[in-house]
């Protein structure tokens, strides 16, 4: 029988785990300031995560999802976006939000259960955290459809985890995007675990990137622990989407070094040896090794950065903890545009009790 179609999925990587170069670097990698800004953003994110976990453990923050081991995914992707592009993040994409101007205390407010954290300082058109798995994908397709109808040279960027690719929401959004050739980039952080479910029990596909082929567009696999590779793939994908070439799909292969959230105990479903082996691949040490080898970074720089991050994080924590709690009746304020009578009555009752 004749072969009517052939497909391929390519893998992108530039920096080895020890910081050495595997293949010629993209042009932007000659910009020391850019590489250092990527490094600084990843370090800030990791230290911020550590502080957030400490706050949660001491009862001053709600459940929190860390980015440990996959900082390069959200930072690398966000760094390739323009301000006018639209970000649709999952609950593990603080790195992208911080890059786009969201304040640390606003992120803490959200995870502290305060809706004011979603009224953040980043671009007003960016979407808030999406906690339901995969439900932001149809939203992203809708955003991209609107951008195309308006003939605006903007791109929707949708981030989610590998578990989301097992949801119908994601494939339906991808299929719609492919049919209408929408300006959208789907980014899956394949960190190998959907909470406690390993990738091998989610799909029999050799890659997640190949799922884009069924939707009619290009899927690429990227070393998600190599921020240079992430930035390069993001630049190309965003440019293609912006220039009318339709959707793109990036599978960022990385590893979740921490628990799924602060409510999880990953030691119940994976071995310490497995995690320890993966620490050798993590993105921050990888980029630091490269920067040091290229004489772009040194011990004094590292110490100065640690001090700056500490001061910035502690100041944000102080502002977060000093924020007066909202009145209890405000829990109804973001449910409906016009609050139904039954809820309006409950809101009024709460307001009366509070005033009394």
UniProtKB/TrEMBL annotation:
Cofactor(s), names only, from the UniProt record: thiamine diphosphate
Residue ranges that the Swiss-Prot or TrEMBL entry lists as coiled coil: none
CDD domains assigned: TPP_E1_PDC_ADC_BCADC
SUPFAM superfamilies per UniProt: Thiamin diphosphate-binding fold (THDP-binding)
UniProt keywords, alphabetically: Oxidoreductase, Pyruvate, Thiamine pyrophosphate
Annotated catalysed reactions: N(6)-[(R)-lipoyl]-L-lysyl-[protein] + pyruvate + H(+) = N(6)-[(R)-S(8)-acetyldihydrolipoyl]-L-lysyl-[protein] + CO2
EC number: 1.2.4.1
InterPro entries per UniProt: Alpha-ketoacid_DH_E1_comp, DH_E1, PdhA/BkdA, THDP-binding
Domain Dehydrogenase E1 component span(s) in chain numbering: 39-319
Record carries keyword Oxidoreductase: yes
Catalytic class of the enzyme: oxidoreductase
Subunit structure, interactors included: Heterodimer of an alpha and a beta chain.
Known role: The pyruvate dehydrogenase complex catalyzes the overall conversion of pyruvate to acetyl-CoA and CO(2). It contains multiple copies of three enzymatic components: pyruvate dehydrogenase (E1), dihydrolipoamide acetyltransferase (E2) and lipoamide dehydrogenase (E3).
Name the record gives this protein: Pyruvate dehydrogenase E1 component subunit alpha
Organism (species): Bradyrhizobium zhanjiangense
